[in-house]
Structure of DUF3277 family protein:
Amino acid sequence: MVHTYNPKEVIAAFGSHIISGFAEDTFISIEAKGEGIPATVGCDGEVVRSVSPDDTYDVKITLLYGSESSSYFQSSFNRDKKTGDAAQSLIIKDLKGGLVFSADQAWVSQVASRTYGKTANSREWTLTTGQAEMNE
């Protein structure tokens, strides 16, 4: 079986904003914050599994310098700091691979650091979600 990956067919939306201006290498990283299903082994060898109820994620989005999405993320972060009402839906979909990641509520939890040098640098934004779902 042959699978085809095309980064142009990975789409992401934060609220009504379609995220664009992705960096040239890794541009989206999705990391679960919960512990999944860890096991505890007792002294007699019995095993107990615990299902973590934490279905929250950190999503890192790396953008090119000058991306309009950076301005959108910064505005959202600023609004959230002032009013606390900037949480929005987040959806990420790989149209070729079938991945769908979605959260009803997500927010910019960490602004991108700014570095300047001889060439333009990428900016990495961190979004944190409420309960989210990932399907492959």
Summary: The CA atoms of residues 93 and 100 lie 5 Å apart. The longest helix spans residues 68-83. The radius of gyration is 18 Å.
